[in-house]
Amino acid sequence: MTESAARTRPRIDADLARRLVGAQFPQWAGLPLKLLDPAGSDHVIYRLGEDLAVRLPRHDGAVGQAAKELRWLPRLAPELPLPVPAPVAVGAPAFGYPWPWAVSRWLDGEAATVEALAHSRRAAEQLAAFLAALQRFPPPDAAETGSVPDGLSGWALEERDRETRDAIAGTSGVFDAAALTRLWDAALGAPGWGRPPVWFHGDFHTGNLLTVDGRLGAVIDFGGLGVGDPACDLMIAYTLMTAETRAVFRDALGVDDATWLRGRGWAMATGLNAYTFYAATDPRVAAQTVRQITQALIG
């Protein structure tokens, strides 16, 4: 979370959502709104009727997501083996709300849980197949020129060095700081991607997977979608899987040692970041991030 994201948080309620929809998309003005709770840290989400969802960024760090998803998901969706959100429209700032917002197709399902999927070899194989398909889709320009189009560049692992070391120090009473430091140093020292950039989801964890009847049903929230090193998406192996299903996932995706090690670094760093910001106020996040960090240490 950036300092500006923490600072800029407009008031969002059902009345605002109704006014925005009614003024900009009157064809949906009469549909009922129902708050989705919890909806994650980036958006307030309302179900609109039976088939649509209104997604309003909570902070300025999520502002570009609506336009990004509208541009890229219709191109990626036909190539992917799991459903993803189908953007319908992007709304404009109005009524004191300062940012673009989105209407997308509603996807049924519940957030994935460790209890439902951690031991599922089938889910591990499905997630590997999803990432493999995503990585196969040609990125615009990047494969030929090495340049990444605007809005699609992600963080490099080394850019998280200072905040990660600060988080290690700040959580030394909870986690093994020496073990975390050894893993972090090893991840930073691993060889880089060294291949043409590929697509990555960018925030590939349990909260962005939906299940239907206990089975994997969809992948959502592509705000971190980008082009480059796909190691960041390996965090799913530590947020969701056991050591056994991680091995299934890694084999199905064909991950080399260096990329796997960078992926462990991503899982540890993002887990520490979330723990630092949210664990004191959200027991659910605390439990998830403790698991993510400890599983990353296991490897």
Largest sheet: 5 strands, antiparallel
What does the average pLDDT come to?
92
Shape: globular
Strand tally, please? Answer: 10
C-alpha end-to-end distance: 26 Å
- The helicity comes to 40-55%
Query: How many helices does DSSP assign?
Result: 12
Global Rg: 19 Å
Second rung of CATH, namely the architecture of the largest domain: Alpha-Beta Complex
CATH class of the largest domain: Alpha Beta
In short:
Helix 7 packs antiparallel against helix 8, helix 8 packs across helix 11 and helix 11 runs antiparallel to helix 12. The strands form three sheets. This protein has a five-stranded antiparallel sheet with strand order 1-2-3-5-4, sandwiched between helices.
Element layout with pairings:
Elements: H1 3-7, H2 14-24, E1 33-36, E2 43-48, E3 52-57, H3 65-76, E4 87-91, E5 101-105, E6 110-111, H4 114-117, H5 121-136, H6 142-145, H7 161-170, H8 177-189, E7 198-200, E8 209-212, E9 215-219, E10 226-228, H9 236-239, H10 243-253, H11 257-278, H12 283-298
Antiparallel strand pairs: 1-2, 2-3, 3-5, 4-5, 6-8, 7-10, 8-9
Helix pairs in contact: 5-10, 7-8, 7-11, 8-11, 11-12
